[in-house]
Design the sequence.
């Protein structure tokens, strides 16, 4: 079947909600205004319960079906924005300099609100739907905090599902895959401590810049000579800071970046080799290093059976030719991974059309996506819980 008629009817109203949220971006856990807007809407829909403060500023709405079969499905959207300055020029552009919804979380929140409105109106399912509005996806690990706060146990969630818009995929199309779909995103900072001196007498120094340059070059050996070529790993040094004068070799240099992997064993091997390379090169030149290695979001792994449910639902909405069932994994990270580690479920991409890419100052969520996203959420909940 195509998109639901009621979802199409809701498009303009939900787009207004989306633009309201878009103009008022908030970062990380500081999403009080957005959360309050979500609470207001959920209560106006007549959902059975609205719980706030989970994961500090998260919101959960509970919608009970026409019968109780003892099962609960969780549907999750993220609420936070990014620390960027918007340059879209849209009339509903960010009113807060240095903050913008550059990843479409405003659209995710609005679509899930639209689905909640529909489900509360119709209740054409048995069991319970938990609509989950999460803070701090963009680096704060809000999904993990909600899980640690007892999200799954408190609401008896059996399965959990997430969705993210994706520029470049046409509106009305979906993309998903079983297994790893997004990467673990580990972060590192290394301080190289040498001995500074005059640039004219480098032999009297332990040059942290030269040592850092060797470390940067050799870290690429992790991908080219440590990890199986058929496995995925990306090592990116994104910061290299040292020195303040043209004629002075500094005492210290700092490098930082990320390591991204799609497999836990590869992740462990990459970290081990990273530490060996950094320590070994520094020691061989008489320097010392301080290594801060932070294991950030884990790999986002879709469960096979639940992925089949998402494929069936997306196909019902969009048709077989509009659902990519084996999309290539992305090396970006996603903290929905914590929820998938806690319960079976799946994460799917929905097309945003030919827009600017995510995390771009010109990006904007495409409101034409709204009825497709609402239809997907509604049919997924109804099909998983039954009538």
Sequence:
């Amino acid at each position: 079947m195509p998109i639901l008629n009621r979802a199409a009817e809701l498009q303009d109203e939900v787009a207004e909600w989306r633009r309201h949220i878009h103009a008022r971006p908030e970062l990380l856990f500081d999403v009080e205004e957005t959360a309050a807007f979500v609470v207001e809407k959920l209560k106006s829909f007549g959902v059975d319960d609205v719980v706030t403060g989970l994961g500090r500023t998260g919101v959960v709405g509970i919608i009970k079906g026409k019968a109780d079969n003892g099962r609960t499905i969780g549907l999750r959207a993220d609420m936070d924005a990014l620390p960027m300055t918007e340059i879209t020029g849209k009339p509903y552009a960010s009113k807060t300099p240095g903050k913008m919804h550059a990843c479409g979380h405003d659209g995710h929140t609005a679509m899930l609100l639209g689905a909640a409105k529909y489900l509360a109106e119709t209740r054409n399912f048995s069991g319970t739907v938990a609509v989950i509005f999460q803070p701090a996806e963009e680096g704060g690990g809000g999904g993990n905090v909600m899980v640690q706060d007892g999200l799954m146990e408190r609401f008896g969630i059996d399965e959990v599902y997430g969705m993210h818009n994706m520029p470049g995929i046409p509106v009305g199309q979906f993309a998903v895959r079983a297994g790893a779909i997004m990467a673990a995103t580990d972060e590192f900072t290394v301080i190289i401590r040498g001995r500074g001196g005059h640039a004219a007498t480098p032999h009297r120094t332990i040059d942290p810049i030269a040592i850092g340059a060797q470390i940067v070059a050799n870290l690429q050996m992790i991908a080219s000579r440590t990890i199986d070529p058929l496995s995925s790993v990306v090592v990116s040094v994104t910061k290299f800071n040292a020195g303040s004068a043209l004629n002075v070799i500094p005492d210290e240099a700092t490098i930082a970046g990320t390591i991204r992997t799609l497999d836990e064993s590869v992740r462990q091997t990459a970290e081990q080799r990273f530490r060996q390379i950094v320590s070994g090169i520094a020691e061989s030149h008489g320097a010392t290093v301080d290594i801060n290695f932070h294991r950030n979001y884990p790999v986002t792994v879709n469960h096979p059976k639940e992925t089949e449910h998402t494929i069936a639902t997306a196909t019902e909405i969009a048709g077989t030719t509009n659902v990519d069932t084996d999309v290539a994994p992305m090396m970006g990270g996603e903290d929905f991974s914590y929820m998938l580690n806690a319960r079976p479920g799946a994460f799917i991409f929905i097309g945003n059309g030919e827009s600017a890419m995510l995390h771009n100052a010109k990006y904007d969520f495409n409101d034409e996506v709204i009825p497709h996203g609402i239809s997907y959420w509604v049919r997924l909940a109804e099909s998983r819980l039954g009538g």
Remarks:
- The radius of gyration is 23 Å.
